[in-house]
Amino acid sequence: MARVEADTFETFVPKGGYVCRKGDMVENWLGIIDGMVKMNNFSSDGKSVTFTGVPPGGWFGEGTVLKNEILKYDAMALRDSRIARMPAATFMWLLDNSLPFTRFLLMQLNERLGQFIGMVENDRLLNPDTRVARCLASLYHAHLYPSLEKIVHISQEELGLLSGASRQRANQALQLLEKQGLLSLDYGGIRILDLEGLRRYQA
After folding, report:
1. Under DSSP, is residue 29 helix (H, G, I), strand (E, B) or coil?
2. Distance in angstroms (rounded) separating the CA atoms of residues 10 and 86
3. Is 176's pLDDT higher than 90?
4. Mean of pLDDT values over 166-185
5. Residue 19: its pLDDT value, please?
6. Angle in degrees, CA 185, 152, 52, rounded to 5
7. What is the pTM of this model?
8. For 37-46, what is each residue's pLDDT tens digit?
9. Strands ordered across the beta sheet of 151-152
């Protein structure tokens, strides 16, 4: 723990800024102290696909650090964000010397795999209302995102980007989910009233 605290440092990334960019060599394992970051990619003709959003308490990039390869996606701040950066050397030292960290990392990779399998299913099989519900529910994950509170500080535009819907379509879905008692739209965020209901929701 002493080495982690000595080696890990914090940076600030403004809204719309890059935490890291596709093609960069990964030098750090990345954690979100405050704010929110989306992992996304752009095609050669400018089309964008968002893989996931990472709220406070979440870490990402471990696969790229393990493989010592260049990044295959961009990570952008959806709002002003504070980023924890653990040097790759410290990450690998922990992996070699800490059984609890190794167990944590194994769970992290397993849960991330399950998350992405679910995202592919949602994207291909579900309509926008259900995608928005499942997207909100996916932000509440005890292992990947342990620090999230019952109010998600996320805009409708940000939610649309994460769920593959326009801001207007995300707004329609939120109005529907609010009428069904699953959430309430608060100033500056979305209050989750029935997390299991969102996870099971099928329009």
Report:
1. strand
2. 9
3. yes
4. 90
5. 95
6. 120
7. 0.71
8. 988 887 777 7
9. 151-152, 189-192, 183-186
pLDDT digits (tens, 9 = 90+) for 74-106: 999 988 999 999 999 999 999 999 999 999 999
Instruction: Scan for tokens 């102290």, then name that residue.
Output: 33
List beta partners, residue 52.
39
Q: Strand (E) positions, 35-114?
A: 37-42, 48-54, 59-60, 74-77, 81-87
Average pLDDT over residues 174-199: 88
Two tokens, residue 92? 């690998």
Task: Quickly count: other Cβ atoms within 10 Å of residue 34's Cβ.
Answer: 17
Residue 148 identity:
L
Cα gap 56→141, rounded to integer Å: 12
Report the phi/psi class of residue 57: left, alpha or beta, with left for phi > 0 and alpha for psi in -120 to 50.
left
- What letter would DSSP give residue 106? H
Helices 167-179 and 156-163, packing angle to 10 deg: 100
Q: Name the helix (H) or strand (E) containing 69.
A: none
User: What pLDDT, on the 0 to 100 scale, is given for residue 44?
Assistant: 72
